[in-house]
């Protein structure tokens, strides 16, 4: 099976009456999921969505997200994954540059003003958009903002039916999903994955993580809009698992689901596991949850593996990235804690290959020597969508993905991750290019230049900004942070901003360069003084 239509047919034949998803205690079987996604696919076809069109999904972890993903894949449309935390600055860029023809959103979800956010998009930012599909669980009319008055507005549950789709037209090489990741110009790159890379990886994950051939009850706490969450969900479907979905992570609700439904499997961040363990005082709070895969995002939780094991939960490290999907490498769940907590792991796919290269020469380095991690695997991206230059720089002539990660190789298919090689920051669990935050600050008339670095806080790495331009009377840190809050997702908002007369510079063979290492030191010093 190498396409989503084939995956859907497989689940109907094998798991038809089994519960596929439980969303806020409402179950849906695999058979119903297939029929509902097929109806939605016909509806999308009816409003003109065709093969190759991009459809933005701006939804939380609900059944409708999976339905819409399967529906788009069934007609050959490409899903553009949109983080529910994105604001107007990000939406204008993503919708316009990806060429989204349709946007599906839940306008009244958790009182987040999605339509207000769209109304703040600069003129022309939504020019490519033709259709908006509104999902809602409340009765009543939705007020449509002026920015969408020239769009066709539809209700999720009431789309006009189109002609029957020809699923045979879908090939493994066709695109299925775009994830946004950090770029080098302040604008996210669009990572395009194919049906083949997504579906085949899902079956391998289901097999090697043991989701298949047993009673697998999976907690979907990580967002479906990212590769971490979507990889887990599609692997769960491939295994016939029951997925318990959390629209937004809440430790108390997660704890309730784990206990009431005897959840057996969960992947998440170290923060998530820390929070659910803190909600319970029992010595062994989750007897059904024997082990869980985690991504280490918070340096303050370096002992989470030992803490979880003392409470009966065996955690093991995971590694992945948008370009090769999540759950690509993992630590042995049966290994000692000091090994399970290391970043990196063993490549999951038996056909995957790894090498470590010198970032300057491209020469393959001996095992144990530090260099750039390069991986070739079935789950890797097709390309950076609409960015041929970036694709050529990131995929080698012999098919390896240059990860931009520093590490060293262990054994034939294992590696240890040390750090990111560039200045890309991991904020709130998401890789973020600081240039994007800098560009947002430089929208302000009083800011001439901006530089953003990472600083470690009690809540993990956060952005710390330096600006030039304002004099002492014009510098208003609170106003600048407020501007970022209105334009960017919360995890990208700087925790502090300092005003400088100029940035520290150094001479190099290519001219003057900003000393970002000096800025990092200054940020750390200032943050410690503040706290």
Structure write-up:
- It is built from 15 helices and 28 strands.
- By secondary structure, the protein is α/β, with parallel strands linked by helices.
- It folds into three domains: 4-193, ANL, N-terminal domain (Rossmann fold); 248-420, ANL, N-terminal domain (Rossmann fold), CATH 3.40.50; 430-530, GMP Synthetase, Chain A, domain 3 (2-Layer Sandwich), CATH 3.30.300.
- Strand 1 (19-23) and strand 2 form a beta hairpin.
- Helix 2 crosses helix 3 (63-74) and helix 8 packs across helix 9.
- The N and C termini lie far apart (54 Å).
Q: Helix tally?
A: 15
User: Fraction of residues in helices?
Assistant: 25-40%
Outline: globular
Number of self-contained structural domains: 3
- Give, in spatial order, the strands making up the sheet with the most strands: 2-1-11-10-12-13-14-15-16-21-20-18-17
Care to count the β-strands?
28
Separation of termini?
54 Å
Structural class: alpha/beta
Secondary-structure arrangement, i.e. CATH architecture of the largest domain = 3-Layer(aba) Sandwich
